[in-house]
Every structure is written in structure tokens, then in C-alpha cells.
Write a structure and sequence with these properties.
Elements: H1 3-15, H2 18-25, H3 29-43, E1 48-50, E2 55-57, H4 59-83, E3 91-97, H5 99-116, E4 120-126, E5 140-145, E6 153-160, E7 162-166, H6 168-174, E8 188-191, E9 196-201, E10 204-209, E11 215-216, H7 219-227, E12 232-236, H8 237-245, E13 250-252, E14 258-259, E15 262-268, H9 276-289
Parallel strand pairs: 3-4, 3-5, 8-11, 8-12
Antiparallel strand pairs: 1-2, 5-15, 6-15, 7-12, 7-13, 9-10, 9-14
Helix pairs in contact: 1-2, 1-3, 1-4, 2-3
């Protein structure tokens, strides 16, 4: 039985379309269609019901799906046992991350990673826009978020605490907020189209409107505006650590709330046959982000 045909079935069930499965597996739609047809012929049963508007598994497809998943898992385990945990990393690694995190963390790590694995080539795409990694053919996305449910695979790498910060010049002119309600009297620097901040208030989470004269679609731009004294920003601790240490920014601790923490995630299209270069890079990034 052809394992690639099994992968087409499993990814079709997950993505909800043959086209989506083909993108995840980096096949042409025609190749994916032929592989699925070959599997159906071999099994003597129709596995997928196609209409002009939708695709769904047949009763036979639903019955066979867990067996296909088990066979793929067994294949992956068998290959891993032969290659070992330290298999040779080679080929093109395509990664996307946000501008600030990519510049400060991912790009420096890439230097060390490529020295350790000279057979790897890298295409690193930095953007504060959400990238469709399946449609654009990326192996991996690094995201800092409260991750929503999706058909992608995600591994939590580290906590991502945030801080309210402001420049000394801004605080000298506008004063220092002590409680959450006082933020409404301040210039808040926000992401474009997201004029709310979330805070932990004991056991509850509270969203408050954050308003100001400056917003941007780039965390780097918000950081610069904050450093320039335009207002208060809600930024990741790793992003402001150096500025706080040298006094360019001042952390603001509220009496009744603190910014809701996020997490740093490695997001990839599928857990099937994850290339060694991807697995090793995820492990390297997790090690880089580990406390201490």
C-alpha cells in the first residue's frame, strides 16, 4: 500500500479538500487526485464523496481513516528509529515569523543553526501579517498569540509575558497610571485594527479599550513610538528587556491588573513526515527560549 496515497486521504480529511491536501503535501492537485483514486481502486471502495460544492468521506472512508493514520504513524516511527534523533538535516527550510521576533530571536538563531547544519538552506520571511503557510509553501511559522483552533499542528515553545512600558519623557508629561481604569486617560499605542488590550485581573480576563493618536501594523513601529515618548505600549518582555535595563523605557505595574500573557508557538502544516531540518530547528528554538 502506497504511503503517499494514505497521506493524501488523511490530509484531505483534515483540510476538507483535495486542493488543501495537495498544498500541504506539496503535490499538484492532479497528482493528489490520482493517488486517491489509486488507493480507492486498491481497496475496492469509494473513500471520498465529491460534489461541486463540498467534499466528505464516505462511510467506508470514515471507517478506513483511523487505520490510514495508524499506518502513517507506524511509518514515521520506523523511519525515526533508523535515522535516530540526530538525523542529518538538509534541504530548504522556509520559515516565517513576525518582524520584531524574527529580527531579535529567529535570525540570530539561524546563523548558529546553519553553521551546525551546513546542508540546510534557509528562506526566512518576516512579516507582521498572518501568513497562510499552507498556501505559500512554508515549513514552519513562529507565532506569538493565544492560538485559535485550526487544522495546523502547533507546538508551544515558551511563555510570552508582556509589559506595559513608556518612555521617561512621556511619564514626566502625562503621569503614571496606577490602576487599569486610569489607562483611558493616557495615549495607548495599539496595533492597527485592534484597539483593545486584555488583562488578567485575578482569576478573570478583562478586555479594555486602548486608544491613542498612534497605531501601526508593526510591533517594531509601536516600540519606536513608545521609545520616542508618544505613549504607553503593551509589548513582549523579550522585546523591551534591553530598553528597560538601560532606562530608555519604564515598566508600569498596575495595582489591579497585569497584561494577559501570550505564548510562542511553532506552527506547521502537518505532523506527517516532518523533515529532519524542521524538527531540529524547532528543537533549537525551544532550547534558545528555555529559561536560564
Amino acid at each position: 500500500m502506497d504511503f503517499q496515497s494514505l497521506a493524501v486521504l488523511v490530509e484531505t480529511a483534515s483540510a476538507g479538500s483535495l486542493a488543501g491536501a495537495a498544498r500541504r503535501l506539496r503535490l499538484t492537485p492532479m497528482a493528489a487526485t490520482r493517488l486517491l483514486a489509486g488507493l480507492e481502486k486498491e481497496l475496492g471502495a469509494r473513500l471520498v464523496q465529491r460534489t461541486t460544492r463540498a467534499l466528505s468521506l464516505t462511510e467506508e472512508g470514515l471507517a478506513f481513516l483511523p487505520h490510514a493514520e495508524a499506518l502513517l504513524e507506524e511509518q514515521a516511527a520506523a523511519l525515526a528509529s533508523l535515522k535516530g534523533r540526530e538525523g542529518r538535516a538538509a534541504g530548504l527550510l522556509r520559515v516565517t515569523a513576525s518582524l520584531a521576533f524574527g529580527r531579535q530571536v529567529v535570525a540570530p538563531l539561524m546563523v548558529d543553526f546553519m553553521r551546525t547544519h551546513p546542508a540546510v538552506t534557509v528562506d526566512l520571511r518576516l512579516s507582521d501579517s498572518l501568513v497562510d503557510i499552507v498556501a505559500e509553501g512554508f515549513d514552519l511559522a513562529i507565532r506569538i498569540a493565544l492560538l485559535e483552533d485550526s487544522t495546523l499542528v502547533a507546538r508551544r515553545l515558551a511563555d510570552n509575558p508582556r509589559r506595559l512600558v513608556a518612555a521617561p519623557a512621556y511619564l514626566a508629561a502625562a503621569g503614571r497610571p496606577a490602576r487599569l481604569a486610569e489607562l483611558e486617560r493616557h495615549e495607548c499605542l495599539t496595533v492597527s485594527g485592534a484597539p483593545h488590550w486584555s488583562f488578567s485581573t485575578g482569576a478573570a480576563t478583562r478586555r479594555v479599550k486602548a486608544a491613542g493618536r498612534f497605531s501601526a501594523n508593526s510591533i517594531d513601529a509601536l516600540h519606536e513610538a513608545c521609545r520616542g515618548g508618544l505613549g504607553i505600549a503593551n509589548l513582549s518582555e523579550w522585546d523591551v528587556r534591553e530598553d528597560v535595563a538601560r532606562g530608555a523605557l519604564v515598566p508600569l505595574a498596575l495595582e489591579d491588573a497585569e497584561p494577559e500573557p501570550l505564548a510562542i508557538w511553532a506552527v506547521y502544516p502537518t505532523r506527517r513526515m516532518v523533515p529532519v531540518r524542521v524538527r531540529l530547528f524547532i528543537e533549537a528554538l525551544a532550547a534558545r527560549l528555555a529559561p536560564g
